[in-house]
Specification:
seven-stranded mixed beta sheet; Alkaline Phosphatase, subunit A
Length: 330
């Protein structure tokens, strides 16, 4: 992982020994060579809009939410009047976190709380592990300048102690409860709430409010299954949309139990369902389906009608296990 010419050669050699064939090995090798150049340039001169360049008091991040997906369901939710868009600084959570929480925005970050179901802030701000993810680039000279996690006003890494084993992910109600608690008890200038849905695993059939039915869980790692032809992309898209409805119900609860005059709803990146022959959201892609993300503005008022339940697991999840559950190779 990372940048190493010998490591890249070893990776290409190993890929040649797989059943994918030499064309796949050559394409993957060329892709990681491209990433070395891409991150060398964009770590210095990010392409896209950093969230700290926009005005908001609370930012709700829907992981992997496409612009067209949110527009398709907007009429079902009163808090979505219109769906604008901005270009994200990354096409994966790792790239987004590494190019968002930088020294340039240290002052803003110091007053920001971050309640997250995504482990890539931990990779970048605790472990000093940066893109590319899942493989090795042959050459590159990126200039990463991510702040330390202690530089935030408050961080609650819900993926560590809020994951439900049967779901293989953090359900959205866990994020809502932690965010309501942070909003009421913490003195923060800004609050980011990073929900994992609509990102896979697709858990909508197994979650009803705060109730989880383990028997309804059929975990599918959809990206690999689509690439292998084992899962119809249209079926995956349907399950993705069900995940989106699931998380938006929680957003609705959050907006009535949080005080924030300016709320923005966005995403870290989008998702591909076969466009350009690719699935998911690989690192360093310029395509609008992954780089163009929603931007919805609304407001939030704490009515006090909801009392969160904070359940923390006794054993914290390891970050590699967490990211593997989301379909990443780390």
């Amino acid at each position: 992982m990372g940048i190493s010419f010998t490591g890249w050669l070893s990776q290409v050699s190993e890929d040649l020994d797989t059943d994918h064939g030499p064309m796949w090995a050559a394409t993957r090798g060329a892709y990681y060579a491209y990433l070395g150049v891409w991150h060398t340039l964009t770590s210095r001169y990010p392409v896209g809009t950093n969230i700290f360049e926009r005005d908001w008091d609370a930012l709700i991040v829907l992981d992997a939410c496409r612009v067209d997906a949110l527009r398709a369901v907007a009429d079902d939710y009163e808090f979505i009047e219109s769906v604008d868009s901005v270009w994200s600084v990354g096409s994966t959570s790792h790239e987004w976190a590494s190019k968002t929480f930088t020294e340039q925005y240290r002052d803003e970050i110091a007053g920001t709380g971050y309640v997250t179901g995504n482990g890539y802030l931990h990779q970048a701000a605790v472990r000093d592990t940066y893109p590319p993810s899942g493989g090795t680039a042959p050459v590159g000279w990126p200039d990463w300048n991510v702040v330390d996690i202690e530089d935030f006003g408050h961080v609650d890494q819900v993926w560590q102690d809020g994951r439900i084993e049967q779901l293989r992910t953090v359900p959205p109600y866990q994020l809502t409860d932690r965010a309501v608690e942070a909003g009421r008890k913490r003195d923060l200038d800004r609050l980011i709430v990073h929900y994992m849905q609509p990102h896979s695993p697709y858990i909508a059939d197994a979650v009803d409010g705060r109730e989880v039915d383990p028997n309804a869980v059929e975990f599918v790692e959809p990206l690999g299954a689509m690439r292998r032809g084992e899962l119809d992309p249209e079926l995956a898209r349907e399950r993705y949309m069900e995940n989106l409805h699931l998380v938006l119900e929680e957003v609705e609860t959050l907006l009535s139990n949080l005080d924030a005059e300016r709320v923005a709803i966005t995403a870290d990146h989008g998702e591909l369902f076969g466009e350009y022959g690719e699935y998911g959201h690989p690192d360093g892609l310029p395509f609008p389906e992954v780089r163009k993300v929603p931007w919805v503005t609304t407001t939030a008022t704490d009515t006090g009608e909801y009392e969160p339940t904070i359940d923390r697991n006794d054993t914290e999840v390891d970050v590699e296990e967490h990211l593997a559950d989301l379909g990443y190779v780390v």
